[in-house]
Specification:
Jelly Rolls; mainly beta; 102 residues; single chain; 48% strand; 0% helix
């Protein structure tokens, strides 16, 4: 058993676990921060993102929405996406990639 705690995250993006079928990660977005200047994609992985704290702007494909604590979204394979924090408090997300993306 490979048990990890999300408080082990030490940077804006930390991979916690990886096995043959999936991968877990934590993303911390400080106010004004984005996951990238431009949208990226995962050619062979789906990403499931759960907001643990704060609010996250989700840009997936042509869509844009505000995700709040407890909201979850699935990013399909090859979908252009990025996430940002336009709020005043840090936003924390828990992510699952299947299969692993990083």
């Amino acid at each position: 058993m490979d048990k990890r705690n999300i408080t082990e995250a030490r940077s804006s993006f930390s991979v916690l676990q990886t096995d043959g079928n999936s991968q877990t990660a934590v993303m911390i977005l400080e106010p004004g921060a984005w996951s990238g200047e431009i949208a990226n994609e995962h050619p062979s992985s789906e990403q499931t993102l759960l907001v643990l704290e704060g609010e996250v702007v989700a840009e997936i494909g042509d869509g844009r929405d505000i995700l709040k604590k407890g909201d979850v979204v699935i990013v399909p394979q090859r979908a252009k996406h990025r996430f940002g924090n336009e709020g005043t408090k840090a936003a924390i997300t828990f992510n699952v990639y299947a299969p692993p993306a990083y």
